[in-house]
Inverse folding.
């Protein structure tokens, strides 16, 4: 059984959901026990801090995010925890995920959570005994992530990212809830603005592999750069990269490979967004 690393932050206390409702981008007020939602914690300027999945567990909120970002999420939430009856705890140590995208995962053991999207999260020691055929290893999950257009923290998105650039607003932002941190920029773009770039899927034509950071060109004009490339496993080469907003997709583009000087042809497409 392959257990992938994840991070977990738990918010607990009588003010948990009112506290989170005032900060995060998703509407989390009145969630049923066991409900799962995508959400974002933004900076006051509307740029991305941490993207996460939130599960309601009784009176607690369990926030699951990419490995290496649990401490950042906990620290950011704690910064705004003033006169609030809620505790924020980083429980990332030993936390993991089993991901099955081609079948229904086995029932989650006690202490673990089935997110009902093919992922089961929980303590690694518990997940190691989960008998689920077809669980993805790290390379398999990375391929699924890139093909599905799921941006990775610190790789495809960072502290400079506006949610609409990576289409994060589609599943992780409520435009009907009350105020949340960074709301002004996100809502202004939604109603009467635009961003200058979009995260796109790039289907490479042929077998050359672009490098992360390689320039993307259209008619010899630089229009973006590559952020992620699928691992080497014999499958088609797919990448993610940002393209300037005026580039209509689908479009045939070229990607430079800095170490070889080879121009790689790819089809730029609309990025599907999965959670």
């Amino acid at each position: 059984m392959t257990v992938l690393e994840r991070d977990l932050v738990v918010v607990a206390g009588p003010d948990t959901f009112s506290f989170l409702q005032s900060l995060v981008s998703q509407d989390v007020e009145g969630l049923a026990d066991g409900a799962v939602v995508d959400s974002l914690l933004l900076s006051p300027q509307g740029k991305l801090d941490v993207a996460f999945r939130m599960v309601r567990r009784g009176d607690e909120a369990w926030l699951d995010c990419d490995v290496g970002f649990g401490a950042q999420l906990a620290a950011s939430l704690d910064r705004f925890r003033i006169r609030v009856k809620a505790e924020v705890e980083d429980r990332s140590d030993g936390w993991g995920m089993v991901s099955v995208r081609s079948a229904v995962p086995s029932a989650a053991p006690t202490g673990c959570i089935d997110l009902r999207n093919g992922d089961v999260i929980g303590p690694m020691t518990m997940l190691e005994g989960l008998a689920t055929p077809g669980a993805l290893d790290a390379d398999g999950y990375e391929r699924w992530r890139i093909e599905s257009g799921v941006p990775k923290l610190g790789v495809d998105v960072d502290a400079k990212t506006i949610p609409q650039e990576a289409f994060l607003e589609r599943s992780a932002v409520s435009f009907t809830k009350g105020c949340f941190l960074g709301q002004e920029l996100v809502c202004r773009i939604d109603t009467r603005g635009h961003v200058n770039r979009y995260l796109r899927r790039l289907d490479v034509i042929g077998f050359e592999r672009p490098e992360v950071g390689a320039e993307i060109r259209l008619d010899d004009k630089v229009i973006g750069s590559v952020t992620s490339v699928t691992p080497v496993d014999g499958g088609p080469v797919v990448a993610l990269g940002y393209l300037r907003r005026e580039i209509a997709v689908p479009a045939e583009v070229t990607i430079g490979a800095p170490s070889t000087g080879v121009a790689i042809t790819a089809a730029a497409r609309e990025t599907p967004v999965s959670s």
Notes: The chain has two domains: 4-130, 197-269. The helical segments are 16-21, 70-79, 124-127, 138-147, 169-172, 183-192. The mean pLDDT is 92. The domain at 197-269 is CATH 2.40.30.110 (Elongation Factor Tu (Ef-tu); domain 3).
